Amino acid sequence: MKKIFFLSIISVAVGCSTPSEPTPKKTSLKIVDKTVVKDGVAQSTFTVWGNCGMCKQTIEKSLRKEGIQKADWDIDAKIMTISYDTSKVSLKTIQQAIADVGYDNVNIKGNDAAYAKLHECCQYDRK
After folding, report:
1. How many helices and strands (H and E) does the chain possess?
2. Is the pLDDT of residue 28 over 70?
3. What secondary structure letter does DSSP report for 121?
4. Judging by DSSP bridges, how do beta strands 33-38 and 68-74 pair with one another?
5. CATH of the domain spanning 33-122, picked from 3.30.70.100, 3.40.190.150, 3.40.50.1100, 2.50.20.10
6. Distance in Å from the first CA to the final CA of the chain
């Protein structure tokens, strides 16, 4: 009798811990906001929301400014990597330039009017 009782408890415990339906995969976006400065040149990486190649083009074009040496937005990871001269431009100015063309980033929400004018495929889920 003890054996049957013990096996019943184990069956109930295992049954309760196993979901009846598979749990959907949650895809989570890693939020990044990091800057390293060496000899007056900063390299920053931060999250910028967007969807496609047109987004990449618009975001990177917004950063054609004095002091910015390199700007690359990774479409899949949603990560902007940028190198810039800290005596000529600030990270806040860079992030504001991206927001001005309609793209939310880790610190500044994109301009609503500019977002509304983005191509349909570029209108990402707002944060």
Report:
1. 4, 4
2. no
3. G
4. unpaired
5. 3.30.70.100
6. 58
